[in-house]
Amino acid sequence: MLYRLLYNLLIHLFSPLLLALLYWPKKGKPGFGRRWPEHLGLVAPASRHRPVWLHAVSVGEMVAATPLIRQLKAEHPELPILVTTTTRTGADQAAKLGDLIEHRYAPLDFPWAAALFLRRIKPRALLIMETELWPNWLTACGRHKLPVMVLNARLSERSAARYRRFHGIFRLLSKNITHIACQYQADADRFAGLGMPQNRLSTTGSIKFDISYDDNVREQGKMLRAQLGAQRPVWIAASTHEGEDEQLLSAHQALLQSHPDALLILVPRHPQRFEKVAALVQQQGFRLHRRTQKVPETNPQVYLGDTMGELPMMLAAADIAFVGGSLIERGGHNLLEPAALGKPVLTGPSTFNFADITRELLQAKGVSIVSDSQELANALAQLFEHEPQCSSMGNAALKVVRANQGALTRTLSVIRTQIPL
Length: 421
Prior knowledge:
This protein is an alpha/beta fold. The chain has helices at 2-13, 15-23, 59-75, 88-95, 111-121, 135-143, 157-165, 167-174, 185-193, 215-228, 245-258, 274-283, 311-317, 336-339, 355-364, 373-385, 387-403, 407-418, and strands at residues 52-55, 81-85, 102-105, 125-129, 148-153, 179-182, 201-203, 234-240, 263-268, 288-290, 302-304, 320-323, 345-347, 367-369. Helix 3 links the parallel strand 1 (52-55) and strand 2. Helix 11 (245-258) crosses helix 16 (373-385). The longest helix has 17 residues, at 59-75.
């Protein structure tokens, strides 16, 4: 009780700072528009009775949750699922699921906001992606006797040591958690070391690896590649951000010195940047073709992916994939998307959003980290000039994906035993 009182005192005391961090305008950061009150629990009721509430704080967690949601809906078409995210970028990722879900912004962890959210949504259970544990959420769920599952859970040794130092906080959190499905046995062991009963722990693996593309995506990729030029070197820079496009275009300019017919498929992360990036490409003197352009540009040097939902097809059309958000401090994006298509993967040094995946791909030699545009240009030239190395790197990336698959099936099995579907 003392820990909870102290916690609530601190979050209210520091609430102006917390709200400023969330809402303060920042260049390239999308806002929340009129939906900001949802963070205070002021959400519209769910359109269907007693949904499963799934929380994925931002993009990385939402990417992991997507195959789980699709499989749940495939097995239980009538099951209502309400997804919450904290960030706008997470909401944009959730929007790709269309009518499979409803979306709300998650309440901040004020006790009154959590209580108001539960009264309005009336969920049957809470599924939390990746150890996003909030004391007032869990207390409110306990009062409503809601099953709470943590999925794809990780617990680093550093976090475990912190919980051991303040063990009362972990007891406050864990008493209202029904089950924790961990990515690795080491995570389960750390939770057990903190006092979590073994019968409330399982090891399922990471569902981020359960990513696959159907033949249609590959066929569309082949068709696009035929349009772009089957014999020319083609690389893609996916999910790029402001401050990164200039570096990528510089790398492409350097690559053109040794490979004058090379083509860059450039796909900005946010659609509101399409026009600005198109202008930047033309300012730098490249021949530009846009995906939405009806009349094709003759022999373009840059192909701008200015559509939504077609990234897998564009990845399939390329020889090599660079994943953005990594040459600037954004933490990177999902390296498994090109890896699942057997593409050699390049990334910048900022990969903290996908640290475990990056580490596994590095160990398998399926990814290479470049620190700047010159290193990127050198890596591209090396791979284009040594096809066996390019192929080996792509195969290694694909093997990592396949070796880690199966977590989705195991996670679903655990969910069935814990919550009413």
